[in-house]
Amino acid sequence: MNLLPQRWVILIVINAVYFSVYFHRISSAVLAPYLMETFSTTAASLGAMSSAYFYPYALTQPIVGLLTDRWGAWKVVTLSTLIGFIGALLFGLAPSLFMASMARGLIGLGAAGVFVPALKILLPWFGPRAFAQMNAILLAVGNSAAIVAATPFAWLLQEMGWRSSFYLIAGVTLLLAIFSLVYLRDLPPGLPGQKEERRETQPAAPKSDWKIFRTPFFWYMSILFFVYNGPFTTFQGLWGYPFLIDVYKYDKLQASNLIMAIALGAILGGPLLVYFIGRSSPEKKRPMLSICIAVQALNWFCITFLGRSLGYFSLALIFFLMGTMMAGTLSFFWAIVWEVSPAEKLGTVMGFMNPAPFLGVALFQPLTGFLMDRVGKIGGAFPFEAYQDAFLLCLAAVSAAFVISLVENRGRKPA
């Protein structure tokens, strides 16, 4: 009986830590004016500072996976959260933009060691059938952090100033590191390990620890992750907001509310989708992954080719579905990866796959900007044709992800 409270405490601590990770990822947009004023810097320099989070995050994912399997997931989360505390504290103390960039890179380094080990911790505590649901909950919490990183964080900055705000954030992060140290554990006491549980539930897993890295599955799924996430994050984190203002002439509040519909889709729709599908047979994971990607491609088709005629309600529905399908896609994606990977190498496999979406964002953000610049601004704003060129690339990429999902499913053979 005492096992149930412990696993729910672990779930709360894990999600609180991941909330902090996602908050830092999004918060620089609201923080930007304060930093520009403090350091008298340019937008380009500020953009370079903001991107300092992503490089150590992406590049260290394979190392995080290896350490997760070798050290234990809870130790990696604890150490990473402690690094995030140091980064947040140094960011608040930064005397120059260069030092702020170094501190933000340290925050990114700390954030890198959370998602992969978090899923590996939750797996034995909640069981294989709950794996997709746990991923959906993490994504919902992350998108909740994206909402908090907007208006609530702007209020905090206004009331406390950006330096004091980061001292507060550093204090909360230190508290999360202590909670991780005290409460997180890799396996429930007295229960069989992941390897034994995997044999009972997924007998088709490859028998060689490293066989998966030599299979088409690994490369299919990594490329799918790359081409699927790049367009989504590019839209949600970069072009969606100006698109609504430039093309539809919405005010800032109307535009921000529509973009918030994406996060609400991930928070509300994603977990419900995964919950209902999770009650059905495991064989439906791959078809559901393809269906989620197909619906996402339909969303991109509507924005790209019907954009001029879409009203506020239609856009809100499309954006809500975008968030829902994103949460569903990632949940089924990781559930399939878990299903195929050796239990003792799950962290390593996830660590080698997880850089793909961030590298996708790194490619799609400048590439879509290049396509928009080819059309140019009219009257200080990009016309619909500029966004259409960029979104056509996104539609092509998501369509390619759909084809890859079908090819991987068709080519799957029992081990």
Based on the model shown, name its key terms:
Growth Hormone, Chain: A; 81% helix; 415 residues; globular
How does this structure look, described?
This protein is mainly α and 415 residues long. The protein has two domains: 191 residues, MFS general substrate transporter like domains (Growth Hormone, Chain: A); 208 residues, MFS general substrate transporter like domains (Growth Hormone, Chain: A). The protein has 19 helices and no strands. Helix 1 crosses helix 9 and helix 9 crosses helix 16. The longest helix has 33 residues. The protein is globular, with a radius of gyration of 21 Å. The two termini are 38 Å apart. About 3% of the residues have low confidence.
Please describe the topology of this protein.
Elements: H1 3-26, H2 28-39, H3 43-51, H4 54-59, H5 61-71, H6 73-93, H7 97-112, H8 115-126, H9 131-148, H10 151-160, H11 162-183, H12 194-201, H13 216-248, H14 252-278, H15 285-305, H16 312-340, H17 346-353, H18 355-375, H19 384-411
Helix pairs in contact: 1-7, 1-8, 1-9, 1-11, 3-7, 5-6, 5-17, 6-7, 6-8, 6-11, 8-9, 9-14, 9-16, 10-11, 13-14, 13-16, 13-18, 13-19, 14-16, 15-16, 15-19, 18-19
